[in-house]
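Progress narrative, work stream C.
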Amino acid sequence: IATNPFAEGLLYFVKEKKYNYKFLAVEKVRLTLQVIGSIIGAVYFLAGYMSLWEIEWYDGVVVCMTMILFTRMAGSRTRFAPFYPVDVSKELEQNATQFINVMRHMSQDQMEHFVARQIMMERNQNFLTLVPDFLKYLYAIMPDRKNMVITVDELSELVENAEIEVAKQLRAI
């Protein structure tokens, strides 16, 4: 019952991590464009205020306001929409919720065997290093942690064992 939601959730977890990095990269470019345009406008205003290059202060104000408006329009989120990655948080949450419902009722031994099987599955081989992080994520989003069969200490031991199993599997590959 839990194999498919776990594997799909792990896949979406990886996509969500990549999404976060790509989203931040696009935001850095967008904000850099806005800041550089504003700085150029401010420099032009200061040049006009100090009467450099035969520029009047009111010309500098006009250029500064134009640059700020231009960078706000050219660097808006709607203009950068094609560069943003596709968000998969809804799918991740659906699969994680399905697995959490099963995970809540598993004992430590059952969870260890389940995680060991997931590590051995060929479907999850590309994402082995993220299995322990995914388990931590599942625990973090779990709404009723007190209703779990295993304790927090047992879960942290399970995550440590999963890291060891992942290292063994990676060495075997």
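Work stream C, second folded protein:
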Amino acid sequence: MKRSPFRLATVLRVRHVQEDVELGRLSLARADARRAADRADASLDRYRRQTTAGPSVTSAGAFLADRLHGERLAESVIDARADVVTSQQVVAERRVDWSFAAQRVSALVRLRDRHNEAFAAAVLLEDVLDADERTIARRHLLSSPNASVEPR
């Protein structure tokens, strides 16, 4: 059977590679978002442990040191939550990039499938025409006056 040369096969391979790259970037962004969420949870746990410690009678200097430490923990919680939001935005951007790449691949796959279907139809039509030509030639030979009728 003849080969069906799809003229955009190279482009399709490149688009598949681009889609894989975008999918990898999306996976990395998701992993970064998960790590950012874990860091935010850990910093919130540290802050809660610090602030839930019961009141204790200490000196003014110790109180100020505890307060400063608590403020730093609170800032780390805020920073970690900001990192989570930023990483989620990156995930959304990567998802859009991957979706665009997947659409481009999908369009080329549909073109390839239509091409293959048209090629298969052309091959079938060629087979039918060849069979018709052989039948006509055989009838022509049988209908000629000096044709011998010998079964095959």
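The helical segments are 9-51, 60-143. No further action is required on this item.
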